[in-house]
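ingest -> validate -> predict -> emit
validate: passed (alphabet ok, no gaps, 226 aa)
predict: started
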Amino acid sequence: RREPLALVNLKKKNEETGEEEIASRLDHCKAKATRHIFLIRHSQYNLDGRADKDRTLTPLGREQAELTGHRLASLGLKFDQIIHSSMTRATETTEIISKHLPGVKKISTDLLREGAPIEPDPPVSHWKPEAVQYYEDGARIEAAFRNFIHRADAKQEEDSYEIFVCHANVIRYIVCRALQFPPEGWLRLSLNNGSITHLVIRPNGRVALRTLGDTGFMPPDKITRT
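emit:
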């Protein structure tokens, strides 16, 4: 869903019309609408939890999610769906945000779970996961990028607005990939809890970053990055 020509079966060529037939079929595969992708980092959570189910949102984290939900609602957009990571902190953040967006369907996915997308360059001393983790998590997070970040379907007539609630590593990697930056630089970006990152995907496949990690709607004393 990135290059319309890839959706055309070139073997099915009309012998009489030739290239005109291909051009006609190509027009039916071209996107007409713009996709707006809102990537939300989960709110602050309990870092002491040993298992995922114990890593629930802190009281401040719940406040952050309320502020994020209020901000999204204030934009006055007709959101199509909320897709969220199946991890506890992302699920809880989604539940709070969704109260401000009644009627918007929620979809949980394991693809957006937190992980180690790719070995960062330059390396950092404070975070060194096992090498195998890059292979396991990296393939999954790359699959999430390919599955969710693409131009609109050719059948889509109107612009769409979608929310993805997930994790800092996932969002940073997706931003680098979407903008065609070296993905190894993902760890150079920093995202606050409950922040909003806005990607725009035009029908021709061009991607623009409108906001990265925006928390300007939160009071300074509510902003965290843990």
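Residues 131-148 form the longest helix (18 residues).
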